[in-house]
Amino acid sequence: MTRSKPQPDATQLGSGLPTHPMWRHMPAVFLTVPCGLVFYEAATTLTEQGYASGTPISNAALYPRLLAGLLLALLALQVVSDVRSGPEAAGSEPAAAPDRPGQLLFAALGMVAYVLLLPVLGFLLATPIFVLAMLLALGDRDPVTLSALPLGLTLGCLAVFQGLFSVNLPRGLLGIAVNL
Amino acid sequence: MGVDALIAGWELFGTPLAIAMTIFGCFLGLIIGVMPGLGPLMGIILLLPAVFHLPPVAAMGALIAIFVGGSCGGAVSAIVLRIPGTPIAAATLLDGYPMAQKGRAGEAIGLAISASAVGGIIGGIILIALAPVLADFALRFGPPEYFALTLMGLIAIAVVGREAPLKGFITGVLGLLIATIGTDAISNAQRFTFGYFELSSGFHIVAIVVGLFAVSEVLFQIRGGGLLEAPKVPRVRISLFSLVLLLKHPVNLVRSSAIGTFFGSLPGAGGVISAFSSYAVAKAQARPEDGYGEGAEGGVVATEAANNASAGGTLIPTMALGVPGDASAAVLMSALILFGYFPGPELFEQNLDVAGGMFLAYIFANVALAGLGFLMTPVFLSVLRLRKVHLLPVVVMLSVMGTFALQSSIFDLWSMLGFGALGYFLRLHGYPLAPIVIGVVLGPICEANFRRSLLISRDGLSIFWEREITFTILLVTALLVLWGLVGKGVSRWLKRQFQRVI
Known about the structure:
The complex is a heterodimer. Chain A is mainly α. In chain A, about 60% of the residues lie in helices and about 0% in strands. Chain A has one domain. Chain A has six helices and no strands. In chain A, helix 1 runs antiparallel to helix 3. By secondary structure, chain B is mostly helical. Chain B has helices spanning about 1-15, 15-35, 40-50, 55-80, 95-100, 105-135, 145-160, 165-180, 205-225, 240-245, 250-265, 270-285, 295-320, 325-340, 345-350, 350-385, 390-405, 410-430, 435-455, 465, 470-500; strands spanning about 180-185, 190. The longest helix of chain B is centred in the C-terminal third of the chain and has 34 residues, at about 470-500. Chain B is globular and about 70 Å long. Chain B starts with a helix and ends with a helix. Classes of the chains: A mainly alpha, B mainly alpha. Chains A and B meet through helix 1, helix 3, helix 4, helix 5 and helix 6 of A and helix 8, strand 2, helix 9, helix 17 and helix 18 of B.
């Protein structure tokens, strides 16, 4: 009996991973960093302040250290499990990359840029620019949508968050704001 | 006590604002549930920052109603497009889509909505009856029992119904670790803040959940492609005749609702297991001529009654013990905590009106579900025609503005993006995100009770096996861990042995 190899499915979690074997272990490698920080902080700052010893009430480092140790043990188990199950294991199936990796990168960088520019340009300037840029990056070329959605979303958020919930939206360095 | 809660709760819930917010939440939940890829959790997350400007019961009513509406909405796209809007609607397409292919889409949707509403109400009645009793029992619990309970809740989420329990353990512990960042509530020590003042209260739970789920979902949707595609959605007319069809399946309806509530009340089991289990039972009890899998009405009734009843079941441990059954319940619980009400016996002892208001909101949301479902299905179907390219900027803006609105903090936005990147990275590797949220929500409770237990213990850790209730809970937890680690291997071995014998 021959078993057909499962077809990669872009909607499945774990699909689209690079084929390098080390890529599978990246979460384990990455998650050891917070564990290291816990032990480092417990051995330095918390020890200096006297919070890394004594009774369970005063020992603020006890519980995080236990968790960090447990997390390291679980990560080690995961790596062993990945190695034993081989490259064909679920979650490591090399599959199709995103249709347009540029779109994904642009959307991610766009969000970062928006948060960076929000305090500089203010909500009223940064928001329509960001929404327009995102629509263009995602492939929308309809002039009606390209003009209506950035404007509509900006005004909608303004009405709801500032008008209804009295949130002070960022005004930016130019101090641009609308009083509702 | 349940009736007392309802009477006390009416004062808070019986206001035009609370009722209107519940109806609005249900409407929003249905819309979000209909859209493939988004679900009740996403709806709760997107509305969460906005509702903090409302009175507690009106706010909780809106969030609970999203939970209810979102649990049902996924059935519409499952029936019409064969794409379940939410994972919990996956079982509905087994018979819902064949019904639609036979020209009975309207009847299938009507049946799904009415079964969901009735199932939800049955789940609500069980919730009202059981939650106060369970909370009363929990009055006997001390710190060791609470520590054991939170641990069991977290591990159950990681293990039950998951393909990769070890990865669930890892993200659960990561959540517990994230919860330790900030000022230690017991000793006042600043932990892992690295000198950043903004971290002294830790990461805001809303920034965490919006980042993990909303931002990572946007990135995954972009990755999936098809952003400009508009699905062809047929015109469907719902008829009230569906209610008559529902009455043909009374036993199935009640049984599936009970199964749904039971599985919903088990942390980790939730709607998907509820729906598939009740479908399997209904199919087993049916006659061959009922044609399960080929458009049987009973299949739609079973799955939809069960998955909405499971929402009521999920609220039982959440409200009575402070142990959320799934990620949606964890976010609901954190909202309640942010309002200053702590789930568990304390809620029923000191804030019976709030608990009662939440019960009423849950029941009313299911009534509203029936009304909105029948009246507004054309609206929900038109939502299905929305292109992703137009939807994603809306989700991003709601995420950004909602997170910012909490404390007018740009730092929260950076946290949101950071958790979005983390969520995307972990999802890409098949790590579940729900245990992180449960870990973050349960973290402070787990730690406080662990340290208090050690303090009152005369002999260190022995307190955890000297007390009967604690020992029992920890034993169950240990079995869950064992099942999570070796269960898959045991199942495979048994399967091999079985095949060899055959």
